[in-house]
Design brief:
The protein is an alpha+beta fold. It is built from three helices and two strands. The chain has a two-stranded antiparallel ribbon.
């Protein structure tokens, strides 16, 4: 197919050391599991801070609508990962 390989991003390594499309992997009870990479979580928190900022000139209705749209999209993208605890702590963080 003559595709060009980006050697900066391409890596052959252990599964738990690799970030792939925002996911990372870990081993639990002999099985490989999927989780969200910490960089993806940091990006999500930064985006939530930006959306909930009171200095962005949006009304509360617009702010809630945009925040809901972002969170629903984010959760639907990462729903194959183990996210229950992460979503609980993120919800607590957002409410604070």
């Amino acid at each position: 197919m003559f595709l060009k390989v980006n050697w900066e991003k391409t890596v052959v390594d252990e599964a738990w050391k690799v970030k792939f499309l925002g996911f990372s992997f870990y081993q639990c009870k002999g099985k490989m599991r999927i989780r969200i990479h910490p960089k993806s979580v940091a990006k999500m928190k930064a985006k939530i801070k930006k959306l909930t900022s009171r200095s962005n000139g949006m009304g509360n209705v617009d702010r809630a609508m945009k925040l809901r749209r972002y969170i629903m999209g984010w959760v639907n993208y990462f729903k194959i990962a183990d996210v229950k605890k992460l979503l609980q702590t993120t919800d607590e963080w957002m409410r604070r």
